[in-house]
Amino acid sequence: MVSSTEYGSHTWELLLTVDHQLEGEKKEFPLSVTGDLHVGGLMLKLVEKIEIAQDWSDYAFWWEQKKCWLLKTHWTLDKCGVQADAKLIFTTQHKMLRLRLPNMKTVRLKVSFSSMVFRAVSDICKMLNIRRSEELSLLKQSEDTLKKKKKKDKNSKEPATEDILTLCDSPVSSGLPANAGLYSKTMTPVYDPVSGSPASSTITWFSDGSSTENCSILALSHPNCSPETLAEMYQPRTLADKAKLNAGWLDSSRSLMEQGVLEEDQLLLRFKYYTFFDLNPKYDAVRINQIYEQARWAILLEEIDCTEEEMLIFAALQAYHVSKLSLSSETHNSTCESEVDEVEAALSNLEVTLEGGNKSNNLEDITDIPKLADNLKLVRPKKLTLKAIKTYWFVFRDTSISYFKNKESAQGEPIEKLNLKGCEVVPDVNVAAKKFGIKLLIPVADGMNEVYLRCDNEDQYARWMAACVLASKGRTMADSSYQPEVQKILSFLQMKNWTMCSQAASEPENVDMKPECFVSPRYTKKFKSKQLTARILEAHQNVSQMSLVEAKLRFIQAWQSLPEFGLSYYIVRFKGSKKDDVLGVSYNRLIRIDMATGDPITTWRFSNMKQWNVNWEIRQVAIEFDQNVSIAFTCLSADCKIIHEYIGGYIFLSTRSKGHSETLDEELFLKLTGGQE
After folding, report:
1. Which residue range or ranges hold the PH domain (predicted)?
2. Are 309 and 562 in contact (CB under 8 A)?
3. What's the rounded Cα separation, in Å, for the pair 27 and 116?
């Protein structure tokens, strides 16, 4: 018999692999170990046996079979579950990764492969000088995109060479923690709000000259690709195709290595959550440019639908304005005349913060809830017959619309009262045809009730549309965001309301411009080149006086005004249903969409959500809402963890406010998105 002490101290052999780049040096080392040896002690024994003098501080053990890191160095091998058959690789935690940015440029930088993705993205954003890293994440390209790319490479006679920007002089890349000061507004580089160029006086506080240059590159837009290149890129045709684009999001609570990402792999860095908080041209030139680029490519590749009128506005903003101004900014010395004094910048920012922003919030806003009352046309679609259009007297109060036969009968009972809380609001506008419509999809027990309102003019439309948008979110016109919403709608309508410029129209051939580069391939096929040029120049008349950053912000604003903005699609099967549906996930709601027609069936607001959970065994997401409404579904186009993380992520982002510290509450994010697999 062997005593328990003798048995416990029994040694066994463990074969360790060292992942170093030294040629001719041995890579496999057998070590005699015991179960009570801690991971840190194993590292020490291995380094002593290797006998190579180098910095091993960034190395850790990767357990190949279990796909996990052994980062808790105080844990014993027994506690980790390591036995003689374990394949442990002693490798660096920081490795080179290629990231394709929203502007389609590729950067190569050192990233932590052992930290969870949420933390890794935070470090990447600090290197790239992008604030609010919680809005971004890493995405694996869909197979369809890669197939099309491989096919294109196969057909091309010459191999395509891509310019890759390598960033490896950052403190993050050497394994050290990133400078926390980058999240402080006063330590973030200040940019010229007109040209978007970084001011040298503040950028030198945190980086060297090469980083300054990199920030300038990332903050500038580049000339558009050729129509041929655009035509060869993957364009989703259906909702099912759009669902494929969102299938590859990485799990934020796990590391890159745990998700099969290898050194020198390429991932996409994208804005995952469409809630762009605290956009400030003074500090966010890189962030604004990358959001603009993501919006631009989404429109060019038809990942989001827009009307012909809207497409021309987007073309005018990017074509004649952003592209030309960006090119002139590259040759312009960024330091001349736009030098910003860092102390002045810090003080002015502090002043705004202490004042609490806008001073125009009167007591009236709290005590008096405004109302709208006007004659509008009501359009009700009738099956098998023409639409019935009739004028009524409408009254908008709180979050409800009531309508009466005429103004005189407004004191009595309304014909109908529509509660807009939780409804879908879709613009139906054609400025050239003087059509100003609002489509309301109001949730009812058996689906959605469709109501169309027709306004007489732009001002009326802007006021009613803004009220409907706020009411759908459960807010009234007393909310401080009502007037800005009205102004936003009016400015967008103004951009659409162009007048023909005789000179631009008569001489489009004199303009050096390839219009096919600025619209999606669908419109390239529909119009001839000269027609497109003339129409883009018409639209350009209303945006010609804008600065570079203003043009980008206006582009982003117009993108946010599109009905489909911010929707990420997934193919799901609802519990009890016999057919597949599409689920749209937005920042404030979930939408069930008919896969065949694309029509919304039901909307559920996050504000009405009581709880949500996942049954990890059957991969089913279950959500409970107010009024005893509950839904459950399985996700067919992606892992259900992605939808679970989307819901938790949007709820996490809704907790942000300007008064709070900009340091991320990582614990709360993980609690809301991590799940219990």
Report:
1. 377-473
2. no
3. 28
For residue 177, pLDDT beyond 50: no
Q: Rounded CA gap, 620 and 641, in Å? A: 10
Domain contains 653: yes
What's 383's domain CATH number? 2.30.29.30
Tokens of 512: 């050096």
Residue 214 resides in a domain? no
pTM of the complete model: 0.81
- Tens-place pLDDT, residues 511-570: 456 777 788 888 878 878 787 788 777 777 766 777 888 888 888 988 998 888 999 999
Q: Rounded distance, CA 338 to CA 589, Å?
A: 43
pLDDT at residue 3 greater than cutoff 70? no
Q: Is 463 a domain residue? A: yes
Sheet with 581-585: list strands edge to edge. 600-605, 589-593, 581-585, 568-574, 629-635, 620-625, 609-615
Q: Which CATH number do you get for residue 53?
A: 3.10.20.90
Is the confidence at residue 333, as pLDDT, over 70?
no
Q: Tell me the sheet residues that pair with 267.
A: 99
Q: Is residue 287 part of a domain?
A: no
Q: How many domains does the chain have?
A: 3
- Which residues fall within 8 angstroms of residue 567, CB to CB, at 6 or more apart? 584, 585, 586, 591
Question: Over 80: is that where the pLDDT of 24 sits?
Answer: no
Give buried/exposed letters for 552-564 (b at 16+ CB in 10 A, else e): bbbbbebbebbeb
How far does Cα 538 stand from its chain's mean position?
A: 31
- pLDDT at residue 421, as a whole number: 86
With a cut of 80, say whether residue 38 has pLDDT above it.
Answer: yes
Q: How far apart are CA 232 and CA 230, in angstroms?
A: 5
**Residue given tokens 């029994």 in the structure block:** 10
Alpha-carbon gap, residue 206 to 126, rounded angstroms: 11
* CB 438 within 8 Å of CB 464: yes
Distance CA 644, CA 647 (A): 5
Please, which pLDDT band fits residue 214 given cuts at 50, 70 and 90? low
The more confidently predicted of residues 148 and 664 is 664
Asked which of 206-210, 252-256, 312-316 is least confident by mean pLDDT, the reply is: 206-210
Q: Which domain holds residue 623?
A: 568-674
Contacts of 566 (CB under 8 A, 6+ apart): 274, 560, 586, 587
477, 502, 527 — which closes off a domain?
477
